[in-house]
Amino acid sequence: MIEVEKAREKIQHVLAQQKEVETVSILEAAGRVCTEDIYAKVAVPHFPRAGMDGYAIVAKESQGANPQEPICLKVTETIFAGDAEQAFIKAHGTAVRIMTGAPIPKPYDAVIKQEWTDYGETQVNIYREITSGRNYGEVGEDVYLNQKIISKYQLLNSRTVGILAAQGITEIKVLAPIKVGILATGSELISPGSPLVSGKIYDSNLYTLASLIQTSGGKIVFKEYCSDDIGEISRIIQEKVNEVDLLITTGGVSVGEKDYIPHVIQQLEGELLFHFVNMKPGTPVMASLYQNKVLLNLSGNPFAAVVNLHVFYWSILAYFMNCPELNLEKRTVQLTEDLKPSTLRRFIRAYEENGFVSLKSIVHYSSVFHNTLETNCLIDQPAKKQLSKGDYVTVYYWKF
Amino acid sequence: MIEVEKAREKIQHVLAQQKEVETVSILEAAGRVCTEDIYAKVAVPHFPRAGMDGYAIVAKESQGANPQEPICLKVTETIFAGDAEQAFIKAHGTAVRIMTGAPIPKPYDAVIKQEWTDYGETQVNIYREITSGRNYGEVGEDVYLNQKIISKYQLLNSRTVGILAAQGITEIKVLAPIKVGILATGSELISPGSPLVSGKIYDSNLYTLASLIQTSGGKIVFKEYCSDDIGEISRIIQEKVNEVDLLITTGGVSVGEKDYIPHVIQQLEGELLFHFVNMKPGTPVMASLYQNKVLLNLSGNPFAAVVNLHVFYWSILAYFMNCPELNLEKRTVQLTEDLKPSTLRRFIRAYEENGFVSLKSIVHYSSVFHNTLETNCLIDQPAKKQLSKGDYVTVYYWKF
Q1: ipTM of this predicted complex?
Q2: Which residues belong to any copy of the MoaB/Mog domain (chains A, B) (predicted)?
Q3: Is B334 on the interface with A (CB under 8 A)?
């Protein structure tokens, strides 16, 4: 039995990273991983920009101005946002009426807000002294020319989309999504939508997994059921492995007589990476390498499968996409109650709020799945350790 | 100037809530809002289910068993997961070999894990005493018959998808997405992809907003630019207002000579909800009701626009979809440095980790947008209040 961290390492050691690139519109770029460093070809702003509605002035000409002794300047023109930049304007004793976002002509070096003037049209009285640079948006104040604005493998969001737009960029190269196949094994499984049969259950794992992986930006290239049949499991894995970056199975990994996944991998001469991890639920989780693809084999129990998935999928995705930000969000918080010690490391459904985490008064059997909806995280409880109210623990949040 | 909370209330007071329903596959349901209470038509499990690989026994027949004095039971058959439920089996002195997930026949009331037996095939030696109910998944242990499994207006996630699948459900009714129109106003704006012109800037707001709203599940029904032209702004609003649930504009809300949005609303005889809110940046944010639709008018400055959007869009979405969970995530955390007092309530870009928030050593001018990428939240700094290192503040996380 190995540790979660060691198991993750073993996967990363053999997992190929995504090389496939695609070009998308910046409007489709949020949530994607950029594949190149991007440098600013346009400074933002690319001209000195008025930060206020008011008057562009030479700041030193406002020296000594106050409401009793205003300084009067001649207004030579009005510049609106969108107007073209103007050449040097002979300035002594003059001001320019200017609106937010408009280009400030030389030699003006400040904008006095209109509320501090008499709003004069041909000449303006200035009631305050201001210093050079006031409400004066310097060239490159936000983004300077050639500044690296996006880094290779950066996760894009709506603000990065805006930043790219401000550069005039409309398309961007991003990593293609991870291609995932899901195989739910178990002779007891029937597909939702079909009639219920004695001894059978509607499969839920296929749906939970597919939903989560899709929502995370992954591409489900196949999702199938099969019964506990060595030949069938083996055939599907062989047929489908080349279509995917990651093949996830559920069920058939424990020690029951029809837990065939380990046999299939052996028969296919796959390289076993690990089987049985120090975690509860989902101890029998397994991973192997076959045809250069990682096969991640989760427990069949729905709660165990989703915990296995959270513990392994996000770290696989983050590594595959070269983007640590894709990892599961975690946080160090305080327990509001004692935890029963556990022989194995345990992931406990729980509810965290403002730095405090509670188990809630719900059933914590691994055979119960529905009440995970009342929780927002998993407590990572170390093995064989007494943890009491007030102690700090790590929690991982349910994602999607 | 009104408070943020009052401004939100004024919007909610007039905003129609979403009534439009659509049916989607459960695989497309994550992130959507359910429109009905859903009750379990199938108990989970719907038969007593073995929780372990082992032997189904009558627990009291294991009384006194230990490794030195095992109790021997006759094995009458083997039941696998997926096998049909069996009628009552005459039980005295017998056991049934059983695998995880298989239906446990009556009168057996416990499953002893195989590791505590000699794995016998025709007869089995039991090395431990177990109690009734051990590894015995009762009918309805996870979900009982007629249990409410999903509530009306519940936000669905990948686990709810699995829970629906376990009921045999393949489709679900959800609220249609909010339909949003975006109009970026400003004569200085040109579209990314076109050549840069003196005094003009590439618009970024349209893209930041569209990206965020799309990623939040909203539907962008139009996105357009227009110059600071009363007629054009007015024409677009009139033409498009009926296509949307919410119309968002950027720019033209302040006190400049060409800040025409307030005039347009007046001219159209829209009902002003508010103009100028106690918040910085984005003080001149405005909202009105026109043709029974809410128009939300944000500042044109990119940082102010995105702060306005975070402060108002999420609360609008949550109210419109009847789902408070859609609101912006917030948290009470401790300051790691003093805050300069501010005349207005201020939203400060910041970085929060494990309960502590810092301003980072970055420029906090509202004319700077790019460095918001180095932050993960906004500190909500109350007006005119001295806040020092160690004090608690509310932060709101950037979402998408």
Answers
A1: 0.94
A2: 181-319
A3: no
